[in-house]
User: What shape does this take?
Amino acid sequence: MRQGKHSIFWEIIALGTLILGLSFLGVPMLDAVLKPSPPHGIVIRLNIVESSGFDPSVITVKRGEPVKIILHGMDVSHSLVVPDLGIDSGPVEPGKEKVVEFTPDKAGTFVFYCGTLCSVKHHFMRGTIVVEE
Ligand SMILES: [Cu+2]
Assistant: This one.
């Protein structure tokens, strides 16, 4: 009987120490596990339509998942505008790069276009972003 109480006491101490230790070690590990993974980067090259326009011109992402788009200015100043998702990169100069990050909160197919007058065919510089469920 006495030995049983003694044993339970040490078991509680051991369990408490284990929980305390795991919580110190576990919090940073849990934080890393629970934190959303860094958004993957989708590279879009920006060229005038006479070359290739947006390359690629169709991208697919998932609703609720962070998206990182890396815009590469290739020839002249361009931009990326997606009104339905509230995105406007602002000008991306040739030879420069600009990153746009967002988390789509609705599924659907949305048009994006260049918002910077870039060539005679500027108004044809369009693309599509597909947000899947
Ligand atoms: Cu343009």
Summary: Residues 2-34 form the longest helix (33 residues).
